[in-house]
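Hi team,

As requested, here is the filled-out complex form for the adenosine-5'-diphosphate run. I kept the field names the same as last time so the parser does not choke. Let me know if anything looks off before we queue the next batch.

— J.
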Amino acid sequence: MTPDLASHPGPPTSAEQPLIQLAAVEKVYRMGKVDYRALRGVDLAVEAGELVALVGPSGSGKSTILNMITGIDRPTAGAVAFDSQPLEEMSEEELAVWRGANVGIIFQFFQLLPTLSALENAALPLDFLRRGSKRERFERARHNLDLVGLGDKLHHSPAELSGGEQQRVAIARSLASDPRLIVGDEPTGNLDTATAAEMFELLVRLNQEGKTVLFVTHDRELAERAQRVVEIRDGLVVEG
Ligand code: ADP
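And here is what came back:
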């Protein structure tokens, strides 16, 4: 008799688990003698391959959520897991290595090193991870700069690039280790509307090529174009 596979699916594989899972996450910031509850029990699951916009008023806790997901900061209570792996089990050093390999981060103000060329900036995460030879790191950085349309400005310094071009370098840098997750904290917030739209299209393309993308935005119009919009208010997910 043929076994009925459908009713015996077997143990779940990691592909069936969310890539990111936050369960009852709380974050309390202590300011002097005053505690401020920035996150008040956030539950959020993001599947591999999703393109998610995080929206909400200033101060609602969006950056804090990103910091929990990237392990830049730790929750006061609750749990954060990446691909079923609890971040709380990692030491600071393990977290840094894990982050370098699995998460690419893009910031509002690009955060490029001003004295380095586009190519050197885009290779930095690989230098940190000591991955490959110097030549291989530059090859990879060159490839990623080509991908974001900056193949002809490899040796320009950030000051010689427009805001949009600097953000492209930052996106290339975020791709250095070929991470599964790209996180953006207001990645279009410092760009004019047309350039912001271009940057968003680039994120869509990366998402179509398999990256999970999670970004914070104030731009409602851009957010509505994401596959999923998660709304944060007063330290809680209120929608999405
Ligand atoms: P958003 O990204 O939605 O603007 P944040 O996550 O940056 O919000 O901040 C949420 C709340 O926590 C705000 O009231 C902010 O002032 C506070 N906060 C954020 N980071 C810190 C910190 N390091 N120390 C104290 N308070 C903080």
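Two things worth flagging: The chain is about 30% helix and 25% strand. Confidence is low (pLDDT under 50) at residues 1-10.

Thanks,
J.
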